[in-house]
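Researcher: I'm preparing a figure for a lab meeting and need a structural model of a single chain. I don't have an experimental structure, so a prediction will have to do for now. The sequence is pasted below. Please return the structure as tokens so I can convert it later.
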Amino acid sequence: MTRVFVYGTLRRGGRNDIQRYQPLPRFVTNARIRGRLYHLGRYPGLALGQGDWVQGEVYEVAPSVLVQLDHLEGLLPQPSGEYHRRNVAVDTPSGPLECLLYEIDPSRIQGRALIEHGDWLQACPPPG
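Model: Understood. Here is the structure written out token by token.
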């Protein structure tokens, strides 16, 4: 199993809720990471680094789900260059936790609105 940090539409209740995938990902914890979150229209992009806290969730996923996530984020079948998969340590209530995340390519955030509070679901709440 692989741990993945999700911060946008893959979060619980989001348009692409990760818990819709099979086999069912296992929720691990809420988490956050330093960076800046940008509004790209129907989804966000995270630029790692100094800045505010970006809110998200950590899940354990099977290898087959990781492949599905790579398709969703444009890494497969041919890399689109929009996102890059990174190994990072996120901040959790019980300390740092190593996991993967999908970081936006810096060229894709030029002129995009910053989500200052770092929470996609607060910026674009799911319907209902």
